[in-house]
């Protein structure tokens, strides 16, 4: 006999666990199924983000940044520490501890909100008059019955054709987070978020890092001015990025990996490295879901087809996060999870794709929301833009990091903010002000007229808003 629930969520990543909690808050009887396991075989909810993505990568970025500061910046503060040494094993242990804290936190939230958690793989069995039968394959097999089903199964790393991940030499984001010792030479294929962040971690720890990017431009998804500044800074740091690189045969030998590629000039090249991280995108994780059993439609990429409100082709079945269209971002998944739970309850869930921020946690950090200048030019939109450098910001000087700037773009006639682009210290935190402003359709003048505490990095946002009208006060 099946255990009955009002809502069953398959997947406990950022979208799934948040959807389950919100549905429970709305009074539904909720089950959440997730198969992630920790090193001891126990439940590890949180999905890719918590286990092998956002959280552990930030832990390593923080550790490696401390090491970099000790090596290169402590002396200017009058701090003498001798020659710093990095214990990679201890750094990885701290990372694992941070991950476990997040896993345990989610399990606690399930208990607090009365969400029933099942540790195993969830898949469709069949449609029934009362909803859908969902199988759980874990320590023990169970069958659940749900009136509403939310699929939040996330995504998996895309491998190079003919070169599967072995997580020893050819690494996905998972293996990149578990390198046991700093490699002398590290190769990365793909200069996106994962490639730049993981490349930065190991570069700070002493690896010679080369990133091969297939696109002809660097950070093509970012504003051009930000991308140019980032490339200049990364070059200075020693993070070598080659754009326009077409990767050919990849060979694994006893002592490393050899990558044949053609550079932007069409010249044949070979990159020999100790380890190779492949970060060329991700694919929707629908294998094992048994979608065909209930006729759930997938698109050509294997993602679940949904409408603007995350409804699938089946009544009572929804899908959110990386397994559907849109940016593969944890916070996008969370917003969709909340929205779907509220739509099930007859409310009007809200997700605005135009105000979803993007962040790259390198040093300097990179963040943006809204349209880039090149997008507005292509669309023929008349705009005005203003920038303010952190070089002229008092707090940035005190921090000892004056790299980068804040750029604001507004409509030429209405002054409504159309995009905000940042590169510099802690811009991952500063971008939220721009998101709030754009969500409420603020003008650049609105930000320019708001009092910002002094001295703060956020004053650079105010000054960029003033710069839109060509009236900065401190530059």
UniProtKB/TrEMBL annotation:
Note describing how the cofactor binds: Binds 1 FAD per subunit.
GO cellular component: cytoplasm
Binding positions (NAD(+)): 190-197, 213, 281
GO-annotated molecular function: dihydrolipoyl dehydrogenase (NADH) activity; flavin adenine dinucleotide binding
Broad class of the protein's primary localization: cytoplasm
Domain Pyridine nucleotide-disulphide oxidoreductase dimerisation: 356-465
Alphabetized UniProt keyword annotations: Cytoplasm, FAD, Flavoprotein, NAD, Nucleotide-binding, Oxidoreductase, Redox-active center
UniProt subcellular location: Cytoplasm
Catalytic activity of the protein: N(6)-[(R)-dihydrolipoyl]-L-lysyl-[protein] + NAD(+) = N(6)-[(R)-lipoyl]-L-lysyl-[protein] + NADH + H(+)
A biological process from GO: 2-oxoglutarate metabolic process
E.C. numbers: 1.8.1.4
Binding site residues for FAD: 58, 122, 153-155, 322, 328-331
UniProt cofactor(s): FAD
Disulfide bonds: 49-54
Active site positions, chain numbering: 454 (proton acceptor)
Domain FAD/NAD(P)-binding: residue ranges: 5-337
NCBIfam families reported in the protein's UniProt record: lipoamide_DH (TIGR01350)
PANTHER family in UniProt: DIHYDROLIPOYL DEHYDROGENASE, DISULFIDE OXIDOREDUCTASE
Family: Belongs to the class-I pyridine nucleotide-disulfide oxidoreductase family.
Additional information: The active site is a redox-active disulfide bond.
Name of the featured protein: Dihydrolipoyl dehydrogenase
């Amino acid at each position: 006999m099946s255990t009955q629930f009002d809502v069953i969520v398959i997947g406990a990543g950022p979208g799934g666990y948040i959807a389950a909690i919100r549905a429970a808050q709305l009074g539904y009887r909720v089950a959440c199924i997730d198969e992630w396991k920790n090193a001891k075989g126990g439940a590890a909810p949180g999905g890719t983000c918590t286990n092998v993505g956002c959280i552990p990568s930030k832990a390593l970025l923080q550790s490696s940044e401390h090491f970099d500061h000790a090596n290169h910046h402590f002396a200017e503060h009058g701090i003498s520490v001798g020659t710093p040494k990095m214990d990679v094993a201890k750094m990885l242990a701290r990372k694992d501890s941070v991950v476990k804290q997040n896993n345990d936190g989610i399990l606690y939230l399930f208990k607090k909100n009365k969400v029933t958690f099942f540790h195993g793989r969830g898949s469709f069995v069949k449609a029934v008059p009362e909803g859908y039968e969902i199988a759980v394959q874990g320590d023990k097999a169970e069958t659940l019955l749900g009136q509403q089903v939310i699929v939040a199964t996330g995504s998996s790393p895309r491998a190079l054709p003919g070169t599967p991940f072995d997580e020893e030499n050819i690494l996905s984001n998972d293996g990149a987070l578990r390198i046991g010792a700093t490699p002398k030479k590290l190769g990365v294929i793909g200069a996106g978020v994962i490639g730049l962040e993981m490349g930065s971690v190991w570069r700070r720890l002493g690896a010679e890092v080369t990133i091969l990017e297939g696109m002809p431009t660097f950070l093509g998804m970012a504003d051009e001015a930000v991308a140019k500044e980032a490339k200049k800074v990364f070059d200075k740091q020693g993070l070598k990025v080659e754009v326009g690189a077409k990767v050919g045969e990849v060979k694994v030998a006893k002592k490393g990996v050899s990558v044949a590629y053609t550079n932007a000039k069409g010249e044949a090249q070979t990159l020999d490295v100790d380890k190779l991280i492949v970060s060329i995108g991700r694919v929707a994780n629908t294998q094992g879901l048994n979608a065909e059993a209930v006729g759930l439609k997938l698109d050509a990429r294997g993602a679940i087809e949904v409408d603007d409100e995350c409804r699938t082709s089946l009544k009572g079945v929804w899908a959110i996060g990386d397994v559907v269209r849109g940016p593969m971002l944890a916070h996008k998944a969370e917003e969709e999870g909340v929205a779907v739970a509220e739509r099930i309850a007859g409310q009007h869930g809200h997700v605005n794709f135009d105000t979803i921020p993007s962040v790259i946690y390198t040093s300097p950090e990179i963040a943006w929301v809204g349209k880039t200048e090149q997008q507005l030019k292509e669309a023929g939109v008349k705009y005005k833009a203003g920038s303010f450098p952190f070089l002229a910001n008092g707090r940035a000087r005190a921090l000892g990091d004056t790299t980068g700037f804040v750029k604001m773009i507004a409509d030429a006639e209405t002054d409504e903010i159309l995009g905000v682009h940042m590169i510099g210290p802690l811009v991952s935190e500063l971008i939220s002000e721009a998101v709030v402003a754009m969500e409420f359709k603020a003008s650049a003048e609105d930000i320019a007229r708001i009092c910002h505490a002094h001295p703060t990095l956020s004053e650079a946002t105010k000054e960029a808003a003033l710069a839109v009208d060509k009236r900065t006060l401190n530059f």
